Amino acid sequence: MRSRDNAIEVDQLSRVFDVSAPWLNRVLERKPRRYLQAVQDVSFIVRKGTCLALVGESGCGKSTVARLVTELYAPSEGAIVFGPVANGKPLSAQMIFQDPQSSLNPRWRVGEIIAEPIRELKLRDTEAGITGRVADLLGTVGLSPDDAARFPHEFSGGQRQRISIARALATEPEFLVCDEPTSALDVSVQAQILNLMRDLQDRLGLTFLFISHNLAVVRHMADGIAVMYLGRIIEEAATEDLFADPRHPYTRLLLETIPDVVKPNRARKVMGGAPPSPLAPPPGGAFHRRCPLAQDICRRQAPAYTPRSGAGKVACHFADNPHRSLS
Ligand SMILES: Nc1ncnc2c1ncn2[C@@H]1O[C@H](COP(=O)(O)OP(=O)(O)OP(=O)(O)O)[C@@H](O)[C@H]1O
């Protein structure tokens, strides 16, 4: 549904990678081409000024969605529509990566790193204007204007992530895609960066797509959560609803692995097994081989989405009967 309130609408996005062996090997060893479906039929909407989290285990396709949304990859199918033009410029996505070490040029001073997009997009006319904007951005992320003269290696991991946030903000984006922005950081530093991002969201009215493998990290950050499994969204709901009433067994198991969500007298579960390979997806529901509740139908037929409250949805044959014990 198109609305002026939507920052981005993603419609049935799919991405296939060609992972075939090199041509000569294929010919000599008579191997067919191989394709890997990294993302399949992913649809979601992020409303302006809100944060949607994409959550799931390693390999479920989160980063590929992030790269599709920031146009680092082209979709194989589907569409991404950005919201209406704001302040005379089209809305576009900026990306914040997990590892600021590799996204900040080590030979450049911090001031130059942050100034580069300002120069490139000619957002200031004079050197003084650029220097002033860099100083403002450093202040916005809790660093000092003097830090402009230093090099990335002189900073801690958390401070480097602040620098990459300042650089992402330099283009005055309205929409930020954050790919595991805190998972390389110590727990105490993680909290500081999450607080900074929440604060920036409030102050600047930013919209976030926040990628994480950890539901605990996104709980206090996201308005809504979409849980991915083997390239698909298997459940999406407002954050409170998802924590209070998870419907998909995979979401329930993910929640039961978080220490502070597990009730005091219950042991914390460990997610058993591993997701299937996207090169050989199982028939039926993608999760059935690990699902303690799987029935025959799950092995035969992929479940369609059942709507949840709000814009939520869940893909499970037994979504309406979610409270059967998982053990
Ligand atoms: N450029 C690529 N070429 C081939 N396969 C890829 C490529 N990028 C991702 N994949 C595959 O697509 C699937 C989804 O990967 P993706 O990185 O999106 O998952 P993820 O959930 O972000 O995992 P992680 O948290 O480990 O980054 C994986 O099986 C991965 O091996």
From TrEMBL:
Statement: the UniProt record of this protein carries the keyword S-adenosyl-L-methionine: no
Topology with respect to the bilayer: Peripheral membrane protein
GO cellular component: plasma membrane
InterPro entries per the UniProt record, alphabetical: AAA+_ATPase (IPR003593), ABC_transp_ATP-bind (IPR050319), ABC_transporter-like_ATP-bd (IPR003439), ABC_transporter-like_CS (IPR017871), Oligopep_ABC_C (IPR013563), P-loop_NTPase (IPR027417)
UniProt-annotated location(s): Cell inner membrane
GO MF, one annotated term: ATP hydrolysis activity
Pfam families: ABC_tran (PF00005), oligo_HPY (PF08352)
GO biological process, one term: transmembrane transport
Entry keywords, A to Z: ATP-binding, Nucleotide-binding, Transport
UniProt similarity note: Belongs to the ABC transporter superfamily.
Record's protein name: ABC transporter ATP-binding protein
Species name: Paenirhodobacter populi
